[in-house]
Every structure is written in C-alpha cells, then in structure tokens.
Amino acid sequence: MTQSTWDAVDAYFSEQLVGHDPALEAAAVAADAAGLPEIAVAPNQGKLLHLLALTQGARRILEVGTLGGYSAIWLARALPADGTLITLEIDPKHAEVARGNLARAGLEKVAEVRLGRAADSLAALVEQGVEPFDLVFIDADKPSNPEYFRRALQLTRPGSLIIVDNVVRGGAVAETDSTDPAVVGTRALHELIAAEPRVTATSVQTVGSKGYDGFTLARVQS
Fold first, then answer.
1. What is the pLDDT of residue 222?
2. Which residue ranges of the chain lie beneath pLDDT 70?
3. 65 Cβ partners below 8 Å, 6+ apart?
C-alpha cells in the first residue's frame, strides 16, 4: 500500500462518517493561514477522540499540546454543558489561533487554553488539587511523554483514560539503539507504563493521511 492509498481511504471515511463541518474546516484554514505545522489529527482521528470522550462520559478533559485547537474542538464537543476542557500550549501564536478557533466553534465557555510549558502547567494543576480529569490526551513534545504521563496519573482517577498520540514514530519505536529524542522518550514512556500497576494499556499502529504512526490507550485502574 502507498501513502496515496492511505490518503484516499481516510478521505472516503471522513466524507462518509465525518462530513462537512464548518467549524472544523475553519479551524484548519486558520491554522494553515497562521503558518502552524500541519500536524493536527486527521478528521477521522478527531472523531475517534470525540467518541472515546462520549463513551467515557467525560465531564473534565485535559489536553497536553493544543496547536491550533482542532483536536480540542473534537474533545470539547463531547462535554456536557457544565463540562470543562483545559488544553496546554507553550507557543503564544498557537494559543492565540486555538482560542480563536474554539470561540468560533462556540466552545469558549467550556474550553480554556493555558499558555506555558506543559510540565509547569501540569505541576500547577497538581498543586492546585483540581478535580480529577476523566480523559487526558497527550500530543506534545515526545521526549517529555514520560513526565506528562506521570502527571496525568496524578490528575486522574480510577476509570480515567489516558491517550498518547504519535507513539509508533514510523516504526522507529522498535529500534532499541535509536538516539532520536522522540523515540527515546516514547520508549521510556512505554517502559514506564509497563511497570506501572495503576494502569492497563495497549498500543495500536495506524496508517492514514498522517502517515504510519499510532497511539497508546491506558485506563487508570487504581
């Protein structure tokens, strides 16, 4: 199979099962116009996040890595009217674009973009003793994934879901001698998860318009 085939299949499923969505399309256009990296989740992947949040019955969602707010829109739409999404972004330009996109999607009352290093923002949330999150989506700098996951465990409850994106690294995650910081961080994440009795987890490889990659899904047990 080729990338063009993966693109075509993603386009077919998105057309059939996602359809035309002005807010999401406007968010993608705004991110592109602002020169943001083209690394947001694909429409069908965004809908998967949405369905997971709905299935979870999530009232509180935490996202690590906002970019232009595309995935935040999908997640926030799964919340009830009194729900909360907090999304963490280090880049002021990205945060500004995301806030605009969330506002245009009518989600500014449930979604908050917090600016700063994610590690610092997560530590602050722990220190504040905030109400646990029902779902955490981690999609930021990969070398920091182990730290983000540790903090996510402090900010969740038994039954919460933690999703970590981009864990396959085009297959490089299986390279034991890799010196790529993203791969090293991803391998360290999975070693941490494997040794962590409070979670049960699996990882799934994916192909599509975003290439060859995958995600890890963990459920907090205790």
1. 77
2. none
3. 87, 88, 89, 118, 138, 139, 140, 141
Confidence at residue 34, expressed as pLDDT on a 0 to 100 scale: 95
Distance separating alpha carbons of residues 49 and 135, to the nearest angstrom: 10
Residue 44's identity, in one-letter code, is N
DSSP annotation string for 117-135 = -HHHHHHHHHHHTPPPEEE
At residue 113's C-alpha, the angle toward residues 90 and 147, to 5°, is: 50
What is the per-residue pLDDT for 90?
97
Backbone angles phi, psi at 209, to 5 degrees: -65, -20
Closest CA to 138 of 209, 87, 198: 87
The pTM of this model reads 0.96
pLDDT, position 2: 86
* CB contact at 8 A, 178 and 184: yes
- For 197, the enclosing helix (H) or strand (E) is none
At 215, which helix (H) or strand (E)? strand 211-220
- Which pLDDT belongs to residue 158? 98
* Contacts (Cβ under 8 Å, ≥6 apart) of 161: 52, 56, 134, 135, 136, 217, 218, 219, 220
Strands 199-208 and 211-220: antiparallel
Structure tokens at 214: 């995958």
- Quote the CA–CA distance of 114 and 122 in Å, as a whole number: 10
Interatomic CA distance for residues 146 and 17, integer angstroms: 34
Within 10 angstroms of residue 48's Cβ, the number of other Cβ atoms is 16
Distance (Å, whole) CA 84 – CA 124: 17
